[in-house]
Design goal:
about 150 residues
Length: about 150
């Protein structure tokens, strides 16, 4: 009975559009990353917000890759494909991290915004870029409008 229920939930989940799955899974991943960011700021101090940002991105990248691969883009393959996709994801994350870090810096030092609020805004700004790069580059969807 439990397996039947899990199967029904699994089938329902994959009938959702990938953009919605990306937002839901990405929301979970962003929450994990943000919690790590906040904990590191509390531990190191607010003046180290950029270091907290870097480490929260590095640590959360493992869960983000796995959840995006399995629950959003549904790619399959051997370990060699997983490694290639992970390397591409690292490229996406470096790009997104740089965008995030620049926005955060402008908000915190430019307009003197609280780093907690600044990170929420910076994360929202990188979401669309992240979706496009993950779908059409990292997980190599053949229907790419960029090709």
């Amino acid at each position: 009975m439990l397996l039947k229920l899990l199967g029904a939930v699994w089938n329902w989940w994959f009938r959702l559009p990938d953009k919605l799955r990306f937002l839901l899974v990405g929301g979970f991943n962003a929450t994990v990353s943000y919690i790590l960011y906040v904990l590191m700021i509390l531990w190191w101090g607010a003046q180290y917000y950029q270091m907290a940002l870097m480490w929260s991105w590095i640590i959360s990248s493992f869960s983000s890759f796995t959840t995006q691969k399995i629950f959003v883009f549904c790619t399959r393959g051997k370990w060699s494909k997983w490694i290639k996709e992970y390397i591409k994801c690292l490229g996406v994350w470096v790009t997104s991290y740089i965008i995030n870090a620049v926005i955060l810096e402008l908000l915190v030092n430019g307009i003197k915004m609280n780093p907690y609020i600044g990170q929420i805004i910076a994360t929202a700004c990188t979401t669309i870029t992240g979706y496009i790069l993950m779908k059409y580059f990292a997980f190599n969807n053949k229907k790419s409008p960029l090709k």
